[in-house]
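Predict the holo structure. Ligand: 7,8-dihydro-7,7-dimethyl-6-hydroxypterin.
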Amino acid sequence: MMAHHAYIGLGSNIEHPQHQVLQALKALQHLPLTTHVQASRLYASRPIGPQDQPDFINAVALIETHLSPLALLDQLQALEQRQRRVRQRRWGPRTLDLDLLLYDDNVIVHPRLLVPHPEMHRRGFVLVPLAEIAPTLYLPDGTSIAHLAKKYRDVGLKPL
Ligand code: ROI
């Protein structure tokens, strides 16, 4: 069986965000049934949504895995818990967010999981790091990631 290609968005803005993201990238390499991990650079990004919170560190990783989408989601949520995820309010600060963005070219509509991630096409902090590691990637609907990312290149996003 061929491994599946899954893209994961990482974000943190409290409790040493850079460390949180690096720690999570390391943890991804140890996921079961997962062979290969490739990560973007880390980016500092201004918060989307409420502005009265610290800047985020964001990154995107590609993993090659034999985990199913829901098994992968379970693993990501377990990692979030392991890094003692704190989330005081919706759209508020968090120690670690791991979003399953894409899984091959699957479209998944499930009570626990929507893939592609429904917000990703208008979030610079996802699109810019994603385009860095996957410049020729397309969304399942045929939209080019590179094309989407271009609009967000200069909006409050800085590689560390
Ligand atoms: N803003 C940025 N810049 N990065 C994030 O990861 C992020 N995550 C969120 C909200 C609160 C929407 N804003 C964000 O969940």
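The mean pLDDT is 94. The chain has four helices and eight strands.
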